[in-house]
Amino acid sequence: MTPDLIVLADTIHTLDDRPANSSGPAIQAVAVRDGLIAAVGSREDAQEWRQPGTRIVDLGSATLTPGLVDCHIHPVFGLDLTIGCDLSGASTLAEVRALLQAESASFASQNDGGWLRAWGLNPNAFGPVPLHRNVIDEVSGDRPAMIRLFDGHSALANSRALELAGIHGRVEFDQSAEVVCDAEGLPTGMLLEAAAIDLVQRHIPKESFEERKTRLGNLLRDFALSGLTGGHVMDHHEESAALFQALEADGELPLRLRSAPWCMPGTGEAEWKGLAHTIGTGGRRWSVEAIKLFVDGTVDNGTAWLYEPDLYGQSTAPFWPRPEEYTAAVRYFASRGIPTATHAIGDAGVEHVLDALESLRGVVPSDVLRQTVHRIEHIETVPDQLVERFQHAEVVASMQPTHCTHYSVADHSDNWSTRLGKVRADRAWRCRDLREAGVTVGIGSDWPIAPYDPLPIIADAQLRRRSGHPEQEPIAPSQALTALQALEGYTSHAARAAGLWDVSGSITVGKRADFTAFERDPLTTAPDEFASSSVLGTFVDGEIQYMLERLA
Q1: What 8-state DSSP symbol labels residue 477?
Q2: What are phi and psi of 77, to 5 degrees?
Q3: Which residues contact 187 (CB under 8 A, 6 or more apart)?
Q4: Which tens digit of pLDDT belongs to each residue from 326-344?
Q5: How many other β-carbons are positioned within 10 Å of the β-carbon of residue 536?
């Protein structure tokens, strides 16, 4: 063996299937050849592996793990969701207004008549005040304006934007979308779900391709700097492919991307066939590998699918007006060995997805079922009986711990919990129960819905509160993951969630040489301290994507 690279570190967590107490020298060295792991052993072993021309990277006291993979991100879709003023830090209506006024003033100085745009608005900032276009009208003047709410499924448009879009009342859609109107039938400015938002979005001037390429390239670089070596991209369209191809024409992507285009209500076999033909397309480090579906919306905007209505009588309808058509779509893809990932937040929505996936038995050949991974994304509130069904149905759970820690609070005074009531709010993000039931639980951020930095997310998964805020009470603390479980959610379970355990997810001979190096050990460092520590470097295909200068 003549390795191209040898990586040394005082602590290496392989996360393979070996017993934790296996005897032998400590694993402190990994050899890489042609992008794959060629050997794993001690520092003494590394002396024997070394050959002329072998590069040595000694990380000293650092900890090396399999490369971190975010199981749910939207890098291209997120370009549209993160334009304008960032409202994610605003916790009161006064702060929202102040930020919008400052943004509007900056536009006024440019005198270009452009759109006022903002994103990341948390409805908790409004308290009991209903979200209404008047809030934007007060600060936008005669400019059209639209604010994207934090959930990515809703927006607030001002009166001028509604006028430009020709929205004067209710609109019928093929999916569970809504132009919210008051008792007189006049639009409030609230737009729920993609079809309603697009009525306004299509009138907003678009960035140039080069502008979007630059923004995406910078974002992917920042992903790598945060410790990510891969991501499951939960959207894809022609522009996504063009952007990835353009970036790869300039060099390698700094992380692997596994994309899933959307299958939406109102489509049939003709459209499904077109989606199926995209599977397997891609480039050197990106590919289309699954289909994304939605069975409901969000609790916060009243479009989740619950057994019983929320406090305001909302969240009672599925995203597909005829849920049997969703089931037919899942069967179409599953029968062709195509993985699916379904957004399901409410209890009724999760149950319908489980029903659909369980119905595949006897319809789809057993060998195809065994080889195809099907996932449910989000799973925000479910009763015991649904948790138990995940393992039986062999369904992967894809969870986002910071949806819990950033947007809900222990005393249930937040919008999400208030809408659900105590019983359903107490069933929040049951990560630990799913793990204890033997379910594969992948972890991610859902960026830009929540920040992408994986270290605070790994910490929050253990704390059930925001890292760095010890004054906060944990939310449903019984659902806290162990340090190992949280790390597995980004490594071994992330690989299983993509059907890639045979080629990635652990530091094992023959697997991809994708690694993340940490300043602190994620398995032994207190979560708050780990969240604020540094990533020292990342490797993809055995190539350094990012490394602190003192180690390079």
Answers
A1: G
A2: -55, -35
A3: 133, 162, 167, 168, 169, 179, 180, 181
A4: 999 999 999 999 999 999 9
A5: 22
